[in-house]
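Regression check, glutamic acid case 447:
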Amino acid sequence: MTDSTPVPDQRQRILEMADRLGVKFMRLQFTDILGAIKNVEIPDKRFEAALDGRIMFDGSSIEGFVRIEESDTYLRPDLSTFRIIPWARTGEKVARVICDIHNPDGTPFPGCPRQALKRVVAKAAERGYRMTAGPEVEFFLFHTREGEPVTSTHDAGGYFDLTPIDQGEDVRRHIVLALEQMGFEVESAHHEVAAGQHEIDFRYDDALATADNVSTFRFVVKNIASQHGLHATFMPKPLVGAAGSGMHTHQALVQGERNVFFEEEGRWQLSETCLFYIGGLLRHAKGMCAVTNPLVNSYKRLVPGYEAPTDIAWSEKNRSPLVRVPAARGRATRVELRLPDPSCNPYLAIAVMLAAGLDGIDTRTDPGPPVNKNIVTMSRRERRHLRIDELPGNLSEALDAMEKDDLMRETLGDHIFEHFLEAKREEWYDYGRQVGPWEVGRYLKMY
Ligand code: GLU
Ligand code: MG
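Current build output:
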C-alpha cells in the first residue's frame, strides 16, 4: 500500500537511481479538484529538497485550490510513486513523483483530493477492510488539423476488430508499452464499439494506487497519441449517435487475503456485506453522480442505447444496469459500477464510491432484488412498478442531488465540496447561456 511517510532507504534509492540514470528533472505531480494533473518541475540540484517535501508552491493559481490568504502549500511526495517518464521531448530524462499537498504547519491541505481519498481508505481500514479497484478506461483517438483536435477518425473499426480496419492499433500498442515501462500491468487492450474508440484495462490495485494509475494513464495516453499526431480524449461523449466513453470501475473489499464479497453459501454466492455495499452504491448513486460524471457532456453519455447506465438498479446477470456483478467468484468476486466516466477526478470518484459502499454496510442497506431484465426496453410504468429510479438527467440535477447528500460533504470535506459545487454550477450556468447548432437547426426555420 502506498504511503507518503518518507522511508529513508527509499529516498536514498531514488536519489541513487536518478543519479545513475542521469535524471535531469523531477516533476512533482498532483491533481486539482477538477482532476487535472498539475506539476512543479524541479532540476536535479533540488531533488533532495523535493523528496523531503521541502518544495513550496503558490497554490492560488490553481483551480479551486486555495483562498488567497493561505496560498503557500508544500508538496509532500509519495516515494512509492517515483517513475521515470519513458519518453523525452528534449532529450533530458525526466522523472515524476505524485505528491500530497500540505499546509506550512504540516497539516493536510483540505483541498487535496488525494488526501480526501486517503481519509476514506482509513475509514475502510477502521472497519478492517481494504478496497481494491479496477477501472476500464475508454477513450477516443482523433485526428488533428493544424495542431487542433478534430472529431474525425478514419478508423472504421468496431468492437475487437483487427487491422487493417483498426488504425489506432499501432498507437495503442505504443501506449501499452509506455504504460508497462511506467510499471502498469496491462491486462487487455482492444477497440471499443465506436469508430476511433479504444479501451485499455490495467490490473486492479488498492484504491489509492488505482486513482494514481488513472491519473498517470490519462497523461500517458495523451502524450503517446500526440507523438503520433493524434489527439486522445477522455471526453465522455464526443460524437452524436455513437457510444460514449465510460470508466466502469470494478471494486471489492478484502480482509487480509480474503475477499469479503464472496460467500460460498450466500445467495448468488455473495456475502451480506457485498449486498449492503451494492445497496450503498445504489442509495448514493444520485448524490455521487456529479463527482463520477462531472461534465455537462457526461450526461449525454448516460442515455439509453449505448451500453451506458440510465437507471438505478443492479444485476448479477445483465450488462445494462448501473451495478453489475461479474460471474467470477472466490477471490475475484467484485461489483462493477458502470456509472463513472473517464473525465472524473479519479481520487474523488473512488473516494465517493468507497464511501457509498461503506455507508451501505454501516446502515445495512438492502439493494433490493436484482433486475435481470433489460431495463432499456422496459416501459416507464414497468420501471416504476419495480421502483427503479433514474440517474440525474443533467449536470444541474446531479449537483442538486450532490448538495442534498450529506455523505458527499462528509467524504469530500467542506473545502472540496464547496469549491467543486461552485465551479460546476458556473460550468452549468455558462452552458445554459449558449445557443448550439441543435437549437439553431431545430428552431430557426420553424419559428
Ligand atoms: N461505452 C460504454 C459506456 O459508455 C460501455 C461499453 C462496454 O460495455 O464496455 O459505458
Ligand atoms: Mg468497454
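Comparison notes: Residues 2 and 191 are 32 Å apart (CA to CA). The pocket of glutamic acid (ligand 1) is lined by residues 138, 243-246, 301, 306-308, 338 (CB under 6 Å). No diff flagged against the previous build.
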